[in-house]
Design a protein that fits this description.
Blueprint lengths: L3 H8 L2 H21 L15 H23 L17 H22 L1 H15 L5 H22 L7 H9 L1
Helix pairs in contact: 2-3, 4-5, 5-6
């Protein structure tokens, strides 16, 4: 009779279990490090520890989910073998993603956060195979607008609005 460890190795799920457990350990280390962040008494509810804790919690939950599902033998993304029929090589994918990052850096000063983020989102989605740039732009607009509102209005972080949003704010 095979042990659970041997069955995990034979099924190919062992790497998923190991990665999941490593993610859980990483989230614990992140949480421990976050407790050392000093805060001034001026912060009410949302301080500099909230978002790092949320990220640590998310990483821990995803890691636990991955480890548990692999341990229980729940099939993941590679269960139905789908042959790779793409003709593109990894080079164009990387070029689109890196190009999106560069476009964001350049566009941040010229266009502002929201429009630079939309361009980056569309280019990154294209790099991962999306051909629906209009839908990608709408998704990018929704995500970037929420992020802009959260940082500029809720957290009062000064991020570049760009000429169009400056016109809306001042008008």
């Amino acid at each position: 009779m095979l042990t659970k460890f041997a069955r995990l190795r034979r099924s190919g799920a062992l790497p998923d279990v190991i990665i999941g457990l490593a993610m859980v350990l990483l989230s614990v280390a992140m949480a421990m490090a976050i407790t050392t962040i000093r805060t001034s008494p001026g912060y009410a509810y949302v301080g500099p520890k909230v978002f790092p804790f949320a990220v640590a919690l998310f990483v821990g939950l995803v890691g636990a989910g991955l480890a548990i599902s692999a341990f229980l033998g729940i099939a993941g993304s590679d269960s139905p073998a789908v042959p790779d029929t793409s003709t593109e090589k990894p080079g164009p994918t990387m070029a689109w993603v890196v190009g999106g990052l560069i476009a964001n850096l350049v566009g941040l000063a010229l266009l502002g956060f929201v429009f630079a983020a939309i361009i980056q989102y569309v280019m990154t989605a294209r790099g991962f195979g999306s051909r629906r740039w209009r839908l990608d732009a709408v998704c990018g607009l929704a995500l970037a607008s929420c992020a802009y509102f959260l940082f500029s209005e809720v957290l009062k972080v000064n991020i570049p609005a760009g000429p169009l949003l400056e016109l809306i704010h001042n008008g």
